[in-house]
Amino acid sequence: MTARRAKPLMIQGTMSGVGKSLLVAGLCRVFAQDGLAVAPFKSQNMALNSGICSDGSEIGRAQVMQAQAAGIEPEAAMNPILLKPTTDTGSQVIVGGRARQTMSARDYFAYKRQLVPDIRRAYDDLANRFDVIVIEGAGSPAEVNLKRDDIVNMGMAQMVDSPVMLVGDIDRGGVFAQILGTLMLLEPEELSLVKATIINKFRGDKTILDPGLDILRERSGLPVAGVIPFERLDLDEEDSLTDRFDARDPSALVDVAVIRLPRISNFTDFMALSAIEGVGVRYVGRASDLGEPDLIIIPGTKSTISDLLWMRTSGLEAAVVRRANGGTPVVGICGGYQMLGEQVLDPTGVEGGGSVRGMGLLPVRTVFEQTKRQVRSTGTVCEVAGPLAGLSGAAVHGYQIHMGRTELVGSDGQPVCELTDEDGTRVLDGCWRGRVYGTYLHGIFDSAGASRALAAALFAAKGLDPSQLQAVDLDEHREREFDRLADLVRDNMDMDLVYRIMEQGV
Question: What is the pLDDT of residues 149-202, one digit of tens each?
């Protein structure tokens, strides 16, 4: 054991979606600005939006974002358990960044205590290398049906003797009942760990809230560490709770339609596009809403076969094929790429077994395998024709995360990218034919050059002048947003109190 031992501080919420992830990121940024070595930690995360670390480990996207806010490389220790739902009642269980098995919710509930050593090992590893660990809870600590053998809320706080700040979401209404009701349902030993409350997403004049804050302090016996205003920040989000799916930009000059698959994953692939002025990115879940977009994207998914069948039965597959045959460019990423092929086969039961006909827009077929490919990659777009010809030669970077092997079944398909994996392996990725393109590279549009080239191609196809397009470097954009978030936290939280809680447990 080294002499260094991080001080923990935990953010728990009254429910999912109260803003825990962003508050953790904001605190990470503030502590980093103050000269501390800080790391995020979430013992168990459930999300389809994941990211790949430099060693190929897979963790929740929120912890990747929080590590970026802290100015450090994300690593598996920051999220030792990741659950990626495969059905409504089952998930792939990822431990230490690697897929272990797929389990039903009931089986995992009985199994999860066996993962405590993995959690403890990951936390201790970070605690021995950093000054501060900002821990994120999940859902609510007052979910009484789940409190037995808890490993992510009060169970985690007790495991490392961490002080807790409890966050409520005033934008949803009933914030005082949220906070006081949650506190009422805690056991005495749990309640003793809660040191302050926070009200998040406030809109309006704070003075109107003052009488309620006085009652909250009186009835809880706890200080209010802050009232955080509602603020729109363009940062990575958890997949199920994002408001991006409902966003519309009626002033957009070009229209990009992303199919909102039931198990859509890694929708952050399109943040760089949506940040370009004049480009509207909308998510479509019904065939009647598809309209006449300038580009259709079929994104990644945790369940390629079931989501393809959903597209088939909902009429979206036929609508996409009809528009592709009519000249609308279509891009598939990861699972979306697999769907565009001739066939998807699952001989070993990765997604339940069997095979299914693909959409037939690309001359490829995919065979699922037990081994999951997890790697970061850099490279360039190959010489491509059609409406996306302007992407040819563009530098790209991103990551691959899939369990399928896709191969050409015809002679008229060409690769999309030439990539180099972090271990130096060079590979040809993807396939294009005509106006349809598929790739396994998540983040292919993240670089300013690639996103601008795509936007320029869409503008030119509509007879619009692309010369004034200002693409966004996503890394620089995130840095600016992290600084905005840190300012929001500093301006609206009692940071002296936060430091006393963290350092003295008061």
Answer: 899 999 999 999 999 999 999 998 899 999 999 999 999 999 999 999 999 999
Does 477 participate in catalysis according to the annotation? no
* Cα–Cα separations (whole angstroms), residue 430 to 51, 217, 440, 441: 20, 58, 6, 8
- Closest-CA residue to 198 (of 179, 221, 181, 183): 179
Instruction: Kindly calculate the radius of gyration of the chain based on its CA atoms and give it in whole angstroms.
Output: 23
Distances (CA, A) of 34 to 29, 30, 196, 410: 9, 6, 22, 58
Neighbours of 24 (CB within 10 A): 27
Please give the helix or strand (H or E) that residue 68 lies within, else none: helix 61-70
- Kind plus residue range of the DSSP H or E element containing 378: strand 364-381
Residue that is written with structure tokens 């806010």 in the block: 69
Q: By three-state DSSP, how is residue 92 classified?
A: strand
Q: What is the pLDDT of residue 245?
A: 56
Q: What SS3 class is residue 278?
A: coil
Query: What's the angle, vertex CA 496, arms to CA 211 and CA 494, rounded to 5?
Result: 30
CA distances from 369 to 52, 351, 355, 407 (A): 19, 10, 13, 13
pLDDT averaged over the chain? 91
For 166-183, b/e burial (b = at least 16 CB within 10 A) is bbbbbeeeebbebbbebb
DSSP string, 298-347: E-EES-HHHHHHHHHHHTHHHHHHHHHHTT--EEEETHHHHHTSSEEEET
- Contact between 464 and 253 (Cβ < 8 Å): yes
Which residues, in sequence order, are bridge partners of residue 59? 51
**What's the DSSP call for residue 493?**
B
- Length reported for the chain: 506
d(CA 302, CA 313): 18
Distance CA 341, CA 431 (A): 9
Query: Average pLDDT in the 469-475 region?
Result: 78
Confidence of residue 471 (pLDDT cuts 50, 70, 90): confident
Which pLDDT score is estimated for 387? Answer: 84
- Residue 99 in contact with residue 93, Cβ under 8 Å? yes
Residue 334 bears catalytic tag: yes
**Six-digit token string for 406:** 């896709």
Which one of 28, 334, 417, 431 is the catalytic residue?
334
- The one-letter amino acid code at 421 reads D
Beta-carbon contacts of 454 under 8 Å, excluding residues fewer than 6 positions away, are: 273, 295, 388, 390, 391, 445
Extract the tokens encoding 287: 């065939």
Beta bridge partners of 406: 366
3-state secondary structure of 174: coil
pLDDT at residue 3 greater than cutoff 60:
no
Summarize pLDDT for 339-368 with one digit per residue, the tens.
Answer: 999 999 999 888 888 889 999 999 999 999
Distance CA 336, CA 270 (A): 14
Q: Which of 28, 53, 417, 442 is catalytic?
A: 442
